[in-house]
Amino acid sequence: MGSGIGQVFAMRGYDVTLFDIKEEALRRAIENIKWSLNKLKEKDSTIDVDEVMKRISVSTSLVDSADSYLVIEAVFEDINVKADVLMKVSKLNDSIIASNTSSLPISELSKYVREPERFLGMHFFNPPVLMKLVEVIRGDHTSDRWFNQAIELVRSINKFPLPVRKDVFGFVVNRVLFKLFISACSMLSNFTPEEIDYVAMNELGMPLGLIMLLDYTGLDVNYDISKEALKRGFDFNCPVLAEMVKQGKLGRKSGKGFYDWS
Ligand code: CAA
């Protein structure tokens, strides 16, 4: 999601640097952003692809983040990986530090940053460029000043900020969405993904079916969220996710999931 989030900020005039340890990931991120901007330009000729691209740079070294006003961490949903990145970033930065986590508590992640009052959650939805909502999550130590500043930043990129003042599991959206995912998952023994999604789209009015949405956001991501939920005492078990992730079926990103995306 990092590239999509960076794209949104660049489209609203901010200078953005994308960080990854792998150059290949950065190359792919730039390709994805170009594809997305050209796609958007088909419907809105005022979008200047070159101008937006000029505002985006890439780096494999977090040292280049040192003068940033805002740093958004969007690495894997794994507390050790996130902790490592947050520690490094917060040693270098006096910025607002935000995590795009969907399931890890902000207050727990805040242990890894130097100034927890500047740390909060900024949870985007896929694809960030099209989805209007951003949850802004306040951890136990986030100060009013930086929480309000983050809400203003979200408004400045033309998104709708949803202030989450209590750092509860799943925040607001995933707390609701995961109940639906788990119901859909339990129906897979009797119905096909197409049948379940037909109902979700045609009867519940969802833009994407529930099973397709699992594929769309990544089966690995959803598996990680379900593991975190189970750890925290929520009955969010979907055993087929573990099996599919083990087989390398990660949904849209790997070409195969419940659906064939190749
Ligand atoms: N950039 C630019 N264009 C894009 C794009 C992107 N990143 N992604 C898709 N598009 C384009 C499509 O190619 C399509 O182009 P054409 O019209 O030329 O075919 C166009 O956008 C329209 O797409 P759709 O026809 O699929 O449908 P839509 O316009 O009605 O809506 C959508 C698009 C908003 C993405 C809709 O499909 C949707 O709401 N999907 C559900 C997304 C969702 O629920 N996301 C949240 C998941 S949960 C999460 O992310 C968080 C978590 O914690 C796991």
TrEMBL record:
Biological process per Gene Ontology, one example term = fatty acid metabolic process
Q: Where is the signal peptide?
A: none
Q: What is this protein called?
A: 3-hydroxybutyryl-CoA dehydrogenase
Where would I find the 3-hydroxyacyl-CoA dehydrogenase NAD binding domain in this sequence?
A: 1-167
Which keywords are on file for this protein? Answer: Oxidoreductase
Which parts of the sequence belong to the 3-hydroxyacyl-CoA dehydrogenase C-terminal domain?
A: 170-261
Please provide, alphabetically and separated by semicolons, the GO molecular function terms listed in this UniProt record.
NAD+ binding; oxidoreductase activity, acting on the CH-OH group of donors, NAD or NADP as acceptor
Annotated site, Important for catalytic activity, chain positions: H123
